[in-house]
Amino acid sequence: MSTANLRQPLSALRRTLSASWSSRRLTLNGRLYSQVSVAGIPAEALQSLTPSQVSFIQNLPKAELHAHLNGSIPVPVLLELAREHKSTSTSVSSHIQEGLKKLENLELKDLNDFFGLFPAIYALTATPAALARAARGVLSSFLDGDAPQSTPRATPEMTREEYVETVAAEVERYPEDKAALIVSVNRTMSEQEVEECVGIARRIVGIDICGDPIAGDMDKFAKYFADAKEDGLGVTLHIAETTENTPADTLRLLQFQPNRLGHATFLDDEAKSLVLKNKTCIELCLTSNLLCKTVSTLEQHHIQYYLAQDHPISICTDDTLPFQTSLLAEYALLLAPAPLGLGLSEDAVRRIARMSLDNRMSVLS
């Protein structure tokens, strides 16, 4: 499956709520892990660990800094929303009906099956009440696990204020040191839309740029991101996600002086030099990169470069639903022996987890 084939569904995922969360509950080889189905690459890494190693990463203080709301809704919550939607909706498109049928019958076998769900998921979370339940399910599934803090990212839909207020109300069920909100700005938004997103400030710790990685004019965003930083908000950017991202686009985004970078898979030497100089934390999503084929193997993943440079990184899930992973499983990829994982020591994994905590954004007082 090529990256080009995945770009459209990936860009559709960016109705985001990215977070400092952890794993949920899954029975895997008789062990209880997470509510999400962990399968494939991360499952093999998790299965290779001893019980003491699993306990180590479960109890390790860590933060999830890059996970999207609509891509991380627990399946039981989606099924409840689907049943209610079916009983109350009078007209549903065939595309949405197909997604709902796959969800109800659990006909989810590969990555494309999961990506095909997203039109249905958007329909299921189109009201404030449904969105609130989805956000509550995501936050509960992560924060009731082993990650100490959550910073959701939400790209406003509905009215922008209504969307953010709905998600923020769920975030505010948790203490400030557990949960906060990042507002994501889609690269295709107008200046007026960007200004409105940046101006909403309820338990918001930062703003993000997301969406189709090769769309939009980033110059029009500069003023609003500068204003956000001046107001004390953090900045995180999806950057250099594909080989089609130009060096000029990457350097323009780096001028926003981001606190963190999402993916940063294809930085050129000039961009790497700036990132290293500024010690900008990289949000790394190992399984996502492997399944979307932006990297071919763990051995060739750019995490190796940043580990060698002793550079700040954070291990993240991206979207637990389509990638069938959890934060626990992503940490298993660090600890598992090659070729199932990177074979890092517990001390090295502990240090990486500490980096994720050190690079959280703070709620403004």
UniProtKB/TrEMBL annotation:
Adenosine deaminase domain span: 61-357
MF annotations from Gene Ontology: adenosine deaminase activity; metal ion binding
GO annotation terms (biological process): adenosine catabolic process; inosine biosynthetic process; nucleotide metabolic process
Catalyzed reaction equations: N(6)-methyl-AMP + H2O + H(+) = IMP + methylamine
Pfam family of the protein (one): A_deaminase
Keyword RNA-binding: no
Keyword check for Transferase: no
Keywords: Hydrolase, Metal-binding, Nucleotide metabolism, Zinc
Family: Belongs to the metallo-dependent hydrolases superfamily. Adenosine and AMP deaminases family.
Protein name as annotated: Adenosine deaminase-like protein
Organism in which the protein naturally occurs: Favolaschia claudopus
Lineage summary: Eukaryota, Fungi, Dikarya, Basidiomycota, Agaricomycotina
